[in-house]
Structures are given as C-alpha cells and as structure tokens.
Amino acid sequence: MREVYVAGIGITTFTRLEFPLAEIAAYASMAAMKDSGIDRFDHLYVANMGSARINNQSALASAVVDTLSQTPAGAERIENGPASGASAIKQGFMAVASGMHDVVMVTGAERMREVNNLEATNFVATLTHPLAEYVYGVTLPSHAAMFTKLYMERYGVTERHLAMVGVKNQNNATMNEWAHLQQPITMDGIMDSPEAFTNNPYVSEPLRFFDCCPVSDGGASVLLTTKEIAQSTGRPLVRITGIGQATDTLAVFEREDPTDLLAVRRSARLAYDMAGIEPSDVDVAELHDAFTILEIAESEEAGFFPKGEGHLALERGETEIGGKLPINPSGGLKGKGHPVGATGVAQAHEIVTQLRGEAGERQVADARIGFTCNFGGFGNNVISMTYRREE
Amino acid sequence: MREINAYRCRRCGTLHYPFRMVCKECKENDFFEFDPVPLPRTGRIVTWTRIYNLPAEFEVPTLGVAVVELDNGLRMLGQIDIADPQIGMEVVGSVQVVRRDAYESRYGMVFRAA
Lengths: 391, 114
Fold this sequence. Notes:
The structure holds two protein chains of two kinds. Chain A is of the alpha/beta class. In chain A, 39% of the residues lie in helices and 19% in strands. Chain A contains 15 helices and eleven strands. Chain A is globular, with a radius of gyration of 19 Å. Chain A starts with a strand and ends with a strand. The model of chain A has no long low-confidence stretch (mean pLDDT 97). Chain B has no helices and eight strands. Chain B is mostly beta strands. In chain B, the strands form two sheets. A five-stranded mixed beta barrel of chain B has the order 4-5-6-8-7.
C-alpha cells in the first residue's frame, strides 16, 4: 500500500452562501489546487448528503468535475449521512494507496440553507430508522437529548458542562475566519443572567439552542497524492496515517447500552492501530460536536479520557487551546458550522492547518499528530482518522 | 386492534424489534424465517425528551418522545402523552396515528402514565 499525503487544502466560509451547490464545491476544490500548486487531478470524490433532496440536483459529482473543467477525470458522489466527508477521504485514500490514481480531489459540500431550518432538521432526520424512529417525529437533536439525559443521570454531566463546551467552541470559532458563528458567547449570556433562557431556549430538553450546531452552507477540500508528488509541491508534508470505520444498529434504542458510542470506540481503535499510535500521542483533535454532549462522549470513547470523565477534563480546561489536548480549535461543528457532507473534510482541513502550523491565533503549539472523528447518523456509522506531520 | 410487531427467529428464538432480515444472534439467512409477535404494551421509560423544533407537518408546538423498555425486555421508541415524564416511570401504550402527511396517516405507539 502506498503512503498517502494531503498536498493541498481548501475551504469556503461556512454560512449562508448564495451560490449553486456545484460552485460551492468547486470553490473549495480550486482553493485546494491553488494551495498545492497542482492544477489537475485523476479523480474527484464529492461528499454530499442532500443534493437530490434539498437542492433538487442528483449526480452532483458530474456537475462539479465539469465546473472545474477537469473532464474526463472520474467523479463520484459519496453519501454516508453526516460522515460523508470522512467516507470520501477514505475512498480517496484507497484510490491513491492502491496505486489506481496519483492525484485525487476530495471535496465535501452542502447547501442546507436553501430550505428553512425545520425542513433542514427534517431532512437530516431521514437518516433515522424509518418505521421505528422517524415516523414518531424524532430529530437528531432529540436523539442527542435522550442520550444526554442518560449521561446526566449516570455520570453527573450538567447543563453547565454542556454550555461550557458551547462557549469554548463558539469562542474558538471567532478565531477562525471560515467559521459560521463569529459572535463570542459567555456563560452569563446563555446560562446565568435573567435573560439567559430567552437567549438560549430548549431545542429538545435538556439541549438548548447553544448546544446545537447551526445549519450551514459550505464546502471543504483536500487534495490527496503520493509522497513524491507531495514533496514536489514544497508544502509542509502531512500524511494520513490511520483510518478506522465502524457501524452500529440503525435504531439507537436497540443498542445494548444506550450511553455507549461503540462505533466511535471501535473506529478510533482501528485508526490508532493502523497508525501505530495511542490516544495519548494525539496533540490536537477535531470531534463531531453536532451537539455539545457529543464532544464530551466522543472524547471518552476516543480514549482521551476515561468513560464518564470527559466533563471533568473539560472543567479543568484540558480541552481548550493551550490545554493538554485541545479539542475543536476550529470551533467544531458547533462554532464553525455543520454543512453535513462537508464536515468530515472540514475536520481534515483544520487538522492539516494545525499540523502545518498555519492556524494563526488558534494554533495549537507543537502539533504533530492530529485526530478526527466524523460521526454519522446517531453513532451508527463513524469514521476516525489520524494524521501526522512529517519533515 | 392494530399491533406493532416484534419478530421471533424460527431457528434460535431471538426476538427482534425493529424488523430485520437476518437474525442478530444466529445469523439465520433464510428468507422470511421470522414469526411476528405483538409487542407488549407496558414498560418503563429509559430516557425521554420534549422536542421544540418539530418537522413542519407536526401541527403542535412541542412533542414528547421516549425510549421505553417493554415488559419482555425489548426496547422501543414512542411518543409520550405525559405531563411530567420521569426516567423509570411505568407507562402503558396504545397504537395511534403518530404522523400525518399529505397522503397518509402513519401509526405508532403512544405511551401514557400507567
């Protein structure tokens, strides 16, 4: 198997974008080509969850490859729910590692603001079990809320801990020019002041507005290639060292222990084993905090903290930039935004930026090994990855 | 009376809900080798939430949903019509319309306090 490097990265602002979806994808891809100095690729993978449903456009990859004037390169759309981004990177990795292609563009893009918030939430809810979950009106926030209630009961996590994740990530986002949310928030404003619960109403008890990621448009790209080609670009060398994927039951209630995110634990272990590292080797992590509780739970399942103690590490400030293990310096999904198909690629974008030492104000000092967790469904399809900076 | 069914594997007897094509336990792989068994109506709440950002076709401001552990040990998700739900609360379910869209009414379990 050949080693696979990230030669270029590109991203759009995550916000409401008044451009067609294919152009959002193309913009991020062009930025990655500019970043690497490579102006052609052999194959394109487009990660996207909703084009056929919310943007009325199927076969999105054909539109993107042509918009980029890269025909006759091969192109496919990869749909794997909110884990589409990491799935597409995995496909790109396999294409380069196998020797089938030398230069592969992986682009995630989503344009969710074409519909209103309720329709966007309903669209994401279509990933749940059609007969045993979706029919009842279950949404992703409600899955996370029911999970949170159990976590509170069992481990002593409180609404304050959730808010602390929200404050940390949204304030990290203010240091990220691409992030959706650019307003700093305080514990006073969302928890303590008399206006707090007007500012921060319930979305699904006990989760509040500032516990949930925004609905965003956006695109992100990574250009994957061989060591020789990556070296020729003169850009810092970042290698994808490990990829792990695991699935779990579609209906969340069917899992033996409903507070167990088994697929996160298994996918992370597979990634660490492939890379030959342990969780303690990781310098910076981007976790899938679509809801604040998920950052806490994933930080445990990925092996950074013991089960039930993620919120204690958070209290101690260990997950802040400058802490022992900075989590979501980009702002995470919570602050940066969550254009579902783009998210997994955007996580890779941030890790590569950090490992290159190009993150500016939000730079994690001496970051050499990075970790991402892209959480599909409600933990039913999860992909973890590890990255390493090389000289 | 409308029922919601669990499915019992004919080879090893394992009960499944929701329906699946291959038995989780014995990986029974013949087609349609499951017997439908109506789900019990009573159980207790494992976890619950009240949803405030419902899909537009729900013409109510909020909706309660819960995971319930049924008396035979299977769990299911249902709507709840309970003013003050608590984890561990005993509930009893009935099959009702849980969702309506332009063309059809969909049935599911709605739980009340026992």
